[in-house]
Design a protein that fits this description.
mainly alpha, 7 helices, 57% helix
């Protein structure tokens, strides 16, 4: 559900800005690096993402959201959107033949993992899960 009261929206965004700062700190992503990558002045950036959680953050403008795209991880950018919406980076070019081969390889491995004669029978076991995760990672990297 998307809140429609302006003061409620502002508070939701501020809460999410605090969550973004906590997560940036947890991931050891320096605010100085974010400032350099986004071209947003360090002192301005700290008004959006203050270190002191008790401090009220400045309402983040659309221009800052635009500048932060690519400077902070997409999953954190998604926190600035209503629940259910995600920031997803679209690939510039996709080799559709390579992608089809990778997806086909994944599907074959997944079907094989569900066969009765597979290590876990019809249930996917840890080694099969790891193999499938590797295949997904290849698909994801091919789409970037």
């Amino acid at each position: 559900m998307i809140p429609n009261d302006e003061s409620t929206i502002v508070e939701v965004i501020r809460d999410r800005q605090r969550a973004i700062r906590r997560e940036l700190d947890r991931r050891l992503i320096s605010m100085k690096v974010v400032s350099q990558d986004s071209k947003i002045g360090y002192s301005t950036l700290l008004t959006y993402f203050p270190a002191d959680e008790a401090k009220t953050s400045a309402q983040i403008p659309g221009s800052a959201v635009f500048a932060l795209a690519g400077a902070i991880p997409d999953d954190l950018m998604s926190l600035l959107l209503p629940t259910g919406f995600l920031v997803v980076r679209a690939p510039e070019e996709v080799d559709h033949d390579e992608m089809a081969d990778l997806v086909s390889d994944y599907l074959q491995a997944k079907h094989a993992a569900h066969r009765a004669d597979s290590p876990g029978g019809v249930k996917i076991v840890a080694e099969e899960d790891a193999l499938l995760d590797e295949k997904i990672a290849k698909i994801q990297s091919a789409g970037r």
